[in-house]
Design goal:
4-stranded antiparallel β-sheet; 22% helix
Length: 329
């Protein structure tokens, strides 16, 4: 951690290490400092003041600190404040990284830790109730029709029961554009560099897609995802026996040279999307080619970009509606 950065977690580690060494007074001093600390740089610059660049976050560090204190049975009159701080964060967040989810799980697990991890419940779906019991973690899946009829889970044991609910499905409407933190713009061009405005395409045609991404602040680990319509497929020029990227130019920019930008760390040409890991900040252009392959009517999904380790730092491009693909005559 940098000297001007704040986080309770390193001091909790230090306090526990001193405690295990028998240095009770120094351990208490370190813990007193830990529970009084906030998180982030000692500046007030909105979204970005909390980022320490260590793949962690305020949520992760506070949750891990709380889990460690419970695991080692360390008492402190301000220990529970970490939970109140976490609860305050939940009102401002919509996305959580893998590390944050794991830390929150450990915190909850530590709070409800017991020698006997058995549980007993009753699940009522509609008018039908069935017992459901086990040890440790249990999982059940429900169909949409069951959800509509109503599901009730009743804890029939004596210990606290923690429930995690995950819903999977497909949205009926495209997400609204969002560009206050990261802006994403997608444009399509013919292979000779002319902008494409048509909404009908013919099988066999090939086009250049340009993604222009800009962030309000430097993002070291950015992820850009552009999902292509079902009637198109990506032409990986690195593997193609046909044209090469160096043969194409858009607005005076050679696409091979643009894709060689050192800020673009990694690219993948998948079946249904183009994915790039890149350092985001000032405008960055990246290109790929698509070929029209299957007739039909398709929806063009919006492009999005995010910080890999701060999933709430993201941007969503403008949805382009429907397109039509017809067979070549």
């Amino acid at each position: 951690y940098r000297p001007n950065a704040l986080s309770p977690l390193p001091l909790v580690h230090l306090s526990l290490a001193l405690k295990l060494m028998g240095e009770e007074a120094r351990a208490k001093a370190a813990l007193d400092d830990a529970v009084a600390r906030g998180y982030g740089y000692q500046v007030d610059d909105g979204y970005w003041g909390q980022w320490l660049g260590d793949y962690g976050s305020r949520v992760r560090d506070r949750a891990l600190a709380y889990a460690l204190l419970l695991r080692h049975k360390v008492q402190h009159d301000k220990r529970e404040n970490l939970l109140f701080d976490l609860a305050e964060d939940f009102g401002r967040r919509n996305y959580y990284s893998t590390q944050e989810r794991l830390a929150l799980f450990l915190a909850v697990q530590s709070a409800g830790a017991a020698k006997d991890d058995s549980w007993k419940t009753a699940v009522t779906v509609g008018a039908k109730a069935e017992p459901w019991a086990g040890n440790g973690v249990g999982q059940q899946s429900f169909e949409l029709a069951q959800l509509k009829s109503g599901i009730v889970l009743k804890n029939e044991g004596s210990a606290a029961l923690f429930v995690d609910i995950t819903a999977q499905g497909y949205p009926t409407k495209a997400p609204p554009p969002s560009n206050d933190r990261i802006s994403v713009d997608r444009a399509m061009f013919t292979t000779d560099g002319r902008p494409v405005t048509a909404r009908q395409f013919t099988t066999g045609e090939m086009f250049i897609v340009r993604l222009r991404v800009k962030a309000s602040q430097q993002i070291k680990d950015g992820l850009v995802v552009d999902r292509i319509p079902a009637g198109f497929e990506i032409e990986n020029l690195n593997l193609s026996q046909g044209p090469k990227a160096g043969e194409f130019t858009v607005d005076g920019v050679n696409i091979a040279q643009a894709n060689a930008n050192e800020r673009i760390v990694h690219t993948e040409y998948r079946d249904d999307r183009f994915v790039a890991a890149a350092q985001l900040g000032s405008p960055l252009d990246m290109f790929y080619l698509v070929r029209v392959v299957t007739p039909g009517r398709y929806v063009v999904p919006a492009t999005f970009a995010e910080d890999m380790y701060r999933a709430e730092v993201r941007g969503v491009g403008k949805a382009e509606g429907e397109i039509t693909v017809v067979d070549k005559k």
